[in-house]
Amino acid sequence: MKVTFEDIELENLVLKHQSKTYKKYLRDSKFLNALDRIYFIMQSEKDTAALKNYSFLHYEKLKRVNMSSVRVLNGKVERLLFHEYEDGIEISLIEIDDTHYGQR
Question: How many domains in the chain?
Answer without folding.
Answer: 1
